[in-house]
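Hi everyone,

Forwarding the result from last night's run.
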Amino acid sequence: MSEGNLARNDEQTHAPPALPARCGIADPDSEFTYLRTSASELPDPEPLLVNLTRSVIEVIAGARDLEQLSRWISEDVYKTLVKQAVLAARARSLKNQSAVRPIVHVGTVHLQTPVDDVCEAVIMVQVGRTRARAVAIRLEGIDHRWRATSVGVL
């Protein structure tokens, strides 16, 4: 083996492995990153899922301010919900409708924990008398509390 090949192999074996960026964590060695929290150190996620689902439906309906949810959602979720709320507000203004607090009946909660610090759920919701929706939420244990890192309303 030539000296050049030895140097290349040596560099490859001592290179630090690339760490995936999860939940906005840019540098795991930095003092200003999020701390992952095990599910065993966190409360039962189901009450949060039910309340967050109801709140998300109310935000989209224009009956709740999105700022009220900012503690429990990530920045990406915040941006997504802003877009959905703006689109819903435009649709209401075209129809000359005002924002009305919807009657939300939360049904079945299907919960999974694929990883220790992650909880994924699909919550069935009935909005009013005629509309059924499904809300998919991913919670991650961050800084000793559950935080929604993904929310989808179908």
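Confidence is low (pLDDT under 50) at residues 6-13, 15-22.

Cheers,
N.
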